[in-house]
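Appendix B, example 12.
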Amino acid sequence: KWHLGDADPYQPDKRGFDESFIHGAGGIGQNFPGTQGAVPGTSYFDPFVKHNGRIVKTKGFCTDVFFEQAMVWMKQCRDKKQPFFAYIPSNAPHGPFICPDEYKKPFEDKVKDKNTKAFFGMIANIDDNMGRLMAKLDEWGMVDNTLLIFMTDNGSARGSRIFNAGMKGGKGSVNQGGARVPLFMRLPGKIKAGVDVDRLARHVDMFPTLAAIAGAKLPKKVDLDGRSLIPLIENPKAKWSDRYTFFHQGRWAKAGAPGRWSKGNSNPDDFQHQRFAVRNERWRLVGKSLHDLDADPGERTNVIGKHPAVAAKMMKAYDAWWKEVRPLMVNEDAPLDIGKPFIELYNKQKTAGGIPKWKKPNF
């Protein structure tokens, strides 16, 4: 799952990746107004995938296919004694909820709703694929010098009747349930197993962390938002200065967009104080609600009346952050790309000579 733009300038090969194997649109088969559109007839089983600029027809369940292709490429890098970075964001678990029958069966007597059964089945399938990947790294003798990371993008979609650790909100929410996600790291001999680090970290910390682990020397004048997590990896009780982190759910209208995306206000500044949050180690400010996460991790009690100074300080920091990032929203006045690159490429290939079949690896 790429989901960072289907137009050619935004494709992985234009963003630093030597090898890419992706489906189009935001999800496999998505063709609703507002998305650039997936290849006609694609699905979770035997999906059409763009492999290094060429559409191919795969064989198998989508998550299995993505992991298998990634492992083929990793094996090639290993055989060439070539360092690599593999990024494997799966389409699942995501609606529509579809998975192989054998993954739904364990939940037949535990869950009544068919979508939830498939949702859990998708997760179990990811778990199996992670296990296969770990087994291959062991078989190839790569465990001790390969950093393995598992993380997610957001909380569960709203409406999902599943365990959410008592957190409020879900996907698209600026509350804990939408923004707090796990991060697991494994590097035997370097990272101690079984250690839980309960400190505030952010996605922007990944770049300086990976750069440090890889031994990359970053220019001193580089303006980084994140910080290396190495001190916490080495010692969970290491000194870790507090900081604010900011959240904003910025889905405003876009002139010229199809369907509902063109309706309503399109000025970002009018949304500055809507659907936003500020957090540090202890506090979370969500709009006009302040929550003490030490005492109330589920964000059930608004304590802004007891701690107005805390809220005021957080709001001041948020406004300063908005002032800093607002000039960087350079696409607000850019014309909307209404093309459908994946569909166009598929049709062009089909006319020119057909769609080749993906060579399924023999694992």
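The two ends are 23 Å apart (CA to CA). The beta strands are 21-22, 48-51, 54-57, 148-151, 183-186, 245-248, 276-279, 283-286, 289-292.
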